[in-house]
């Protein structure tokens, strides 16, 4: 969960599932959905960390300032790592009902650094939980193998690869990874947490401008999973490994030292998908039952 910031009485913890809105209203709170975009370059990831600048820290501090509250708690759809960007991040926050919502997004953007923008802000539908109601998260990883490297205006979100890449071979390897699997070979383990994920898509293509894009969507991702998958595909693209190799690593279920985690700056969270409003609470309950470990995760 996200850390609570500020001093004095804090906003109560968010309550998942169908009782979320009833509990919030009884406590005099309204749940808001925030759509957020950011350049991850200057941040040590999403999650608040002592002594580090984070996206969560910046947005929570801005909310505290403009809403004049002692503390707020943001819950996010996906905690991005240090240097990872977002065009379609989603979070929710429970605020007192007496906080004026008119112009709140504009006021937030007025105090936020330009590397972070709140692109949407509105009362959330009943049962909405930014993390547990999500059906899937979608990322894109941008790579260029052009001899001159990344174009200057895209250097912060595109990996410049120094050797030519065989994109059809990468695409063939990617298809073998789609489906429900234990992705322990491509994840950093957390005690008590599952590494079983459903990879809905992993498409690799070269766009007309020559940029190579890995389009990745799953019900959820574990730590460094996308970047480890891309690292394995890069080994295939260079011809160092056959297209069957990433799938063989997957099925062994052990981290392979030959899999290099791709750099963070090529990765962008572009979309979080949710079910219809009437199904939000049920989805949150199902996801929470699967995702929350039964023992402390550390």
Give a written overview of the molecule.
- The chain has two domains: 17-133, Alpha-Beta Plaits; 136-270, Alpha-Beta Plaits (2-Layer Sandwich).
- Strands 1, 2, 3, 4, 5, 6, 7, 8, 9 and 10 form a ten-stranded mixed β-sheet that branches.
- α2 packs across α3 (104-111).
- It has seven helices and ten strands.
- It has helices at 20-26, 55-67, 104-111, 167-175, 225-237, 245-252, 280-291, and strands at 29-38, 74-76, 85-96, 116-123, 136-144, 159-160, 179-182, 196-206, 212-218, 267-273.
- The chain is an alpha+beta fold and 298 residues long.
- A hairpin with a 5-residue loop joins β8 (196-206) and β9 (212-218).
CATH homolog superfamily of the largest domain: Pseudouridine synthase I, catalytic domain, C-terminal subdomain
Uncertain segments are 1-18, 293-298
Main sheet overview: 10 strands, mixed
Please state the CA-atom Rg, rounded to the nearest Å.
Answer: 20 Å
Derived from helix and strand composition plus strand pairing, the structural class reads alpha+beta
- Treating each run of at least 4 consecutive H or I residues as one helix, how many helices? 7
CATH architecture designation of the largest domain? 2-Layer Sandwich
For the record, what CATH class of the largest domain applies? Answer: Alpha Beta
What is the count of β-strands?
Answer: 10
Query: What order do the helices and strands follow?
Result: HEHEEHEEEHEEEHHEH
Give the overall pLDDT as a whole number.
90
**What helical percentage do the residues reach?**
10-25%
CATH topology of the largest domain: Alpha-Beta Plaits
Q: How big a fraction of the residues is strand?
A: 15-25%
Protein name: tRNA pseudouridine synthase A
Family: Belongs to the tRNA pseudouridine synthase TruA family.
Subunit structure: Homodimer.
Domain Pseudouridine synthase I TruA alpha/beta: 173-275
